[in-house]
From TrEMBL:
This is TRAP transporter small permease protein. It holds the Pfam family DctQ. The lineage of its organism: Bacteria, Pseudomonadati, Pseudomonadota, Betaproteobacteria, Rhodocyclales. It is found in: Cell inner membrane. Residues 19-147 form the Tripartite ATP-independent periplasmic transporters DctQ component domain. It is a multi-pass membrane protein. The complex comprises the extracytoplasmic solute receptor protein and the two transmembrane proteins. It comes from Aromatoleum buckelii.
Length: 160
């Protein structure tokens, strides 16, 4: 699991770096040379989609979403675990159909391409779909872990 998490973080970081490099290079070439990189805008949008979908996987597994814990902090330990399970279930319930629909989009991309260089969109779409699929898988893994821990704690409390 650690290898999958490390790979997921690395893929998201690399694509974020590529966005920064592409944007910086385009701005410098436009300002210094008066030319723009062909398809830089389409490329940056595709890279951003990939970075976002791969980046969503990590907080889905770690439960590190940006959230307000007003309710959670006022609950006891058992209800906190229940709320964590509910949050993980909602996350998985959102990401599974999203992953499915992104793969449907990949299947329907056909021969679409970028506007300047006519680069096919299939590759970047498939990489993004793999990222959101990884997010859905990790969200389900978190849900299973939370459920197993929740059941184990319930058994310990009732058994003692």
């Amino acid at each position: 699991m650690k290898a999958l998490l490390a790979t997921t973080e690395t893929v998201a970081a690399v694509f974020l770096l590529l966005i920064a490099l592409l944007t910086t290079t385009n701005v410098l070439s436009r300002e210094l040379l008066g030319v723009t990189i062909p398809d830089w805008f389409d490329g940056s949008q595709l890279l951003l989609g990939i970075a976002l979908f791969w980046g969503m996987a990590i907080p889905s597994y770690r439960g590190g979403h940006i959230c307000v814990d007003i309710l959670w902090e006022h609950l006891g330990p058992a209800n906190r675990r229940r709320l964590d399970v509910l949050a993980a279930a909602v996350c998985a319930a959102f990401l599974l159909p999203l992953a499915w629909m992104v793969w449907v989009k990949v299947g329907g991309v056909g021969t679409q391409s970028t506007s300047d260089l006519r680069l096919p969109l299939l590759g970047p779409y498939a990489i993004a779909a793999a990222g959101i699929s990884c997010g859905a898988l990790l969200a389900c893994a978190r849900l299973v872990e939370l459920l197993m821990n929740h059941v184990r704690r319930e058994e310990e409390q009732h058994g003692s």
